[in-house]
Design goal:
Pfam families: HTH_1 (PF00126), LysR_substrate (PF03466)
Strand content: 15-25%
Oligomer: single chain
GO molecular function: DNA-binding transcription factor activity; transcription cis-regulatory region binding
Structural class: alpha/beta
CATH class of the largest domain: Alpha Beta
Shape: elongated
Protein name: DNA-binding transcriptional LysR family regulator
Radius of gyration: 26 Å
CATH architecture of the largest domain: 3-Layer(aba) Sandwich
CATH topology of the largest domain: D-Maltodextrin-Binding Protein, domain 2
InterPro entries: LysR_HTH_N (IPR000847), LysR_subst-bd (IPR005119), WH-like_DNA-bd_sf (IPR036388), WH_DNA-bd_sf (IPR036390)
Helix content: 40-55%
Keywords: DNA-binding, Transcription, Transcription regulation
Number of strands: 11
């Protein structure tokens, strides 16, 4: 019989060690991020595989049987060896892990990532980062295609085929030049009027456009745009020139609004908030520098 058929896998051994250390299947399951029924089923499967009872269960918790204590001792050696193997593989992978490819939607790339990358550089000066801005649809395609280790998008949901987590939030605003008629409306404009007005917008496939289209769907949908522009800088220039109302991230126009070059027009009956997400290929988790950057981004969000 093959040894592999008699020896539990590494995950099962780690679970057994956690139960022995914590005295509870439930606490071990929580630590390892699995449900208690799944952990209990895995322990039972391991007991069938090795042919002996490994745990004594009681209302007060679980403790190893005599055989379970022996197996746990041997399991610890296996897990330690696996960690040593992982460290060795990590060393071999070091050169590859010294680079990080990031692709991000334009708002994130222009207004948030520079600060994040400064923090990453301070914590991990050995990492070389390449950053490519793109709209949210192109970000998703790049991550799916293996062209980037980590992506950042602004859409209302995680793109299909990807894993993801919310790392922040943003809000779209309607801005106009000070001489535009909407700039003098103290109460702003209604969502229905906004929907009926040809606006200057980002292209389809951008997170900005997706959020706006979804928000206006209940008000008859957005009118055909007056202009479609492919960058935030172009949108702002169009708004400042008086070409018409623009919908853009409030992060992007903070300086122009503070300087009086643009005016924010309230839309009281419309929610234009949107999550910012980090995305990666489904089925795994970010590793190496991608994991480090994600940790920095999430810790910074919690500190706000």
């Amino acid at each position: 019989m093959s040894v592999a058929r008699r020896v539990p896998d590494l995950g099962a051994l780690e679970l057994l060690l956690a139960v022995v250390r914590l005295g509870s299947v439930g606490r071990a399951a929580a630590e390892l991020g699995v449900t208690q029924p799944a952990a209990s089923a895995r322990i039972r499967a391991m007991e069938r595989q090795v042919g002996v009872a490994l745990l004594e269960r009681s209302p007060r918790g679980s403790r190893p049987t005599e055989a379970g204590a022996l197996v746990a001792g041997w399991a610890q050696q296996v897990v330690d060896a696996a960690h040593a193997l992982d460290a060795g593989i990590g060393a071999l992978r070091g050169r590859r892990d010294g680079r990080l490819r990031v692709v991000a939607s334009l708002t994130v790339a222009e207004y948030l990532i520079p600060g994040w990358l400064v923090a990453l550089r301070e914590a991990h000066p050995e990492v070389t980062v390449t950053l490519r801005p793109a709209n949210s649809a192109a970000v998703a395609d790049a991550v799916r295609g293996g062209e980037a280790d980590l992506g950042f998008v602004e859409g209302v949901r995680t793109p299909s085929g990807l894993g993801g987590t919310v790392v922040g939030s943003d809000r779209l605003v309607v801005v106009v030049a000070p001489r535009h008629r909407w700039a003098r409306r103290r109460g702003g404009v209604a969502a229905a009027e906004l929907a009926a007005t040809p606006l200057i917008l980002r292209e389809e496939g951008s997170g900005t456009r997706e959020v706006l289209d979804r928000a206006l769907a209940a008000h008859g949908g957005a009118a055909p745009p007056r202009l479609q522009l492919g960058s935030t800088t172009a949108l702002k220039a169009a708004a400042v020139s008086g070409a018409g109302p623009v919908v853009v991230s409030e992060l992007a126009v903070a300086d122009e609004v503070a300087g009086g070059r643009l005016v924010v027009v309230p839309v009281p009956d419309l929610d234009l908030s949107r999550p910012l997400r980090a995305v990666w290929p489904r089925g795994g988790r970010p590793a190496g520098p991608a994991r480090d950057l994600l940790a920095l981004v999430r810790s910074g969000e919690r500190a706000l």
